[in-house]
Amino acid sequence: GLSVYNIVKTPSLISHEPQNNITTDSRLITISGETDPEIKLTINNELILADANGVFNKNINLSLGLNILEITAVKKHGAQKQVTISVFRQEQQVNKINNSLSIQSDF
Questions:
Q1: Rg (Cα) of the chain, in Å, rounded?
Q2: 47 close to 69: Cβ distance less than 8 angstroms
Q3: Sign of the dihedral defined by the CA atoms of residues 49, 55, 61, 65, in that order
Q4: 3-class DSSP state for residue 64?
Q5: Peptide bond before 18: cis, by omega within 30 degrees of 0?
Q6: pLDDT tens string for the chain (107 positions)?
Q7: Which region holds residue 41: left if phi is over 0, alpha if psi is between -120 and 50, else beta?
Q8: Interatomic CA distance for residues 33 and 15, integer angstroms
Q9: What's this model's pTM, rounded to 2 decimal places?
Q10: Does the CA dihedral 32-86-65-96 come out positive or negative?
Q11: How far apart are CA 20 and CA 83, in angstroms?
């Protein structure tokens, strides 16, 4: 009946941020979302702890270029759901200061 359905049903997994396919110049990004309570949650195979309501937040360091973030929620009996988010980190646009030293003469 219903209890068997709940065991084999995939867990809910909702990613609030970041949006998929974004570009940023930040080295750090926060992944947040929610899943069912008592779910094993991983981001790129790293175990993440959600609160009692299934809400999670995790800061992730980004490498330059394309970063693939795989969020996986797994129930005790193996049913799982995965969300993949692509984030592209570009170099920060910093106004480069010319390091040459200019010497002025007062003669």
A1: 22
A2: no
A3: positive
A4: coil
A5: yes
A6: 555 556 568 899 999 999 999 999 999 999 999 999 989 999 999 999 999 999 999 999 999 999 999 999 999 888 999 999 999 999 987 665 555 555 666 65
A7: beta
A8: 4
A9: 0.78
A10: negative
A11: 10
Place of tokens 């992944």: 31
Q: Which residues pair with 88 in a beta bridge?
A: 23, 66
For tokens 């800061």, name the residue. 59
Element of type H or E holding 13: strand 13-17
Identify the residue whose tokens are 């980004």: 62
Quick one: tokens of 44? 């790129």
The token pair that represents 79 in the structure block: 């049913």
Helices (H), 1-107: 2-8
Closest listed residue to residue 80, CA positions, set 6, 5, 10: 10
